[in-house]
Predict the 3D structure of the following.
Amino acid sequence: MLPDVRHDFPLLSRTVRNGKPLVYLDSGATSQKPHAVLNAEAEFYQFHNGAVARGAHLLAEEATDAFETARADVADFIRAAPEEVVSTPGATQSLNLIANGFAAASDGLGGSEADRFRLGAGDEIVVTETDHHANVIPWQQLAARTGATLRWIGANDDGTLRYEELDTVITDRTRIVAFTHASNVTGVVTDVTAFVHRAQEVGAVTVLDACQSVPHLPVNVAELGVDFLVFSSHKMLGPTGVGALWGRKELLDALPPSIYGGSAIKVVTMETTTWLDAPQRFEPGTQPVAQAVGMAAAARYLGDLGMDNVAAHERRIAQILREGASAIPGVRLLGPVDAPHGVLGIAAVVVEGVHAHDVGQVLDDRGIAVRVGHHCAQPLHRRLGLTGSTRASGHVYTSEDDAQAFLDVLATVPSFFGVTV
Amino acid sequence: MSDLEQMYQQVIMDHAREAHGRGLVVLDSPHVGESHQVNTTCGDEVRVRVALDGDTVASVSWEGSGCSISQASVSVLSDLVTGESLEHADVTYEAFRALMGNRGVPLDEFREDLLGDATAFVGVGKYPARIKCALLGWMALRDALVKAQKGEADD
């Protein structure tokens, strides 16, 4: 069982809106940071700051060691090998890095080993209607650049994926299947095996957006069976500005880089450049080193709590939020209360007759921080007949009282706005 | 009155429920302007259509969907500027902007009089994220008025 960790998070002790205690339920957007992360980042700057992978002085050595140790810790967190983990400025950048690698290959770059990434007319890329914009737009633009066609697995009326479409939408023409591990709106965890099984049948590369899952569930890349997996630091208790891209080594070594600069190269002449192997080929320029160190501290913090404990806590919060929200008259919970592969501690709701911004305003007035709007998932909201919703999302520091406070205030919203339920 | 009650004053709730000027009017006039504005953070949208008669704002009609603040605001502005001069519409807009920037504090008496029902939005000024909601309709109005004036110039 998860201990009470609230005291580890200094921000959570502040008050908001005229002295009210903060109930932070916007962790799906960004999480709060424990002392362990804040201290790791500060300590790097105070004692070890130097240029990574450049120079031979002691600080350069220590900084390089800190950066590579951070990579190893993050890799360990998802049961991966360090050389398969690329440090990126965030999950959005990770996804763009993959898509732009395909684009560069399609432009003829990368030599013969990049043949497997070349796309053209007749090729298809498959995403899902439930994905975050960051896992839709890069593929949409890649299709536009290469002449490939974008297709998608649709959503049911309850926002869950239409698995029956896997066999018809994913075909011999499919080259990439990009999908989310868990919806950031419904919280429903995807049956990854079903996607991977179908993608492997047709020889397509799989890309998993694990932004919502890595912070909350045990993730083991080998068990998942995907080819690429991305996640961000700031949703897993770490700093902003850093994230990770995991990929199978043979794919990473063949994928052409698409951001160019120092440190990623073997030999540069005025005519040509040869790249280092992964992960360095994707890490040109000075990296967010202190942030990477902070991200590793977050991974160790979560690892020490035990991801099974974190996941059990998540289930409890999910149950309170989702059962509670679905029982309030005039409130519609997006997605099912529970699902075969589980749900995250998220509840996106619509109060009938009241706009999401107005719902969020009432909650904010009581010190409860939630997300309002489309949560970067416009296609899913449109599919559900909505422009936006109000989303509560928890993390390790979220208490049952926090979840209950959200439900209690939510229940007062219809009457505040004079809506009869 | 709590901050929340100051923000959602009865006047605003009434305008949100029974909006004035809603429903685009078909205008048979050469001096018509129309503008569609979207609040990208929430997807709220409003389309305002105006007609000018000389320097007078002869007609303001609109359609849109959004939160109570954005809908009430466009309802109030249609009351405030219909039948008034362009200059009056301008001065009223400037007063409303000033109110939004005033962090929840009422303006001077002159501008309060000018704003009428729109003074009820004073509480919105305490919430930077919601100021855009209150201004959405005004942005559409101003853009529509510019287009209507250009229409005149083309004649």
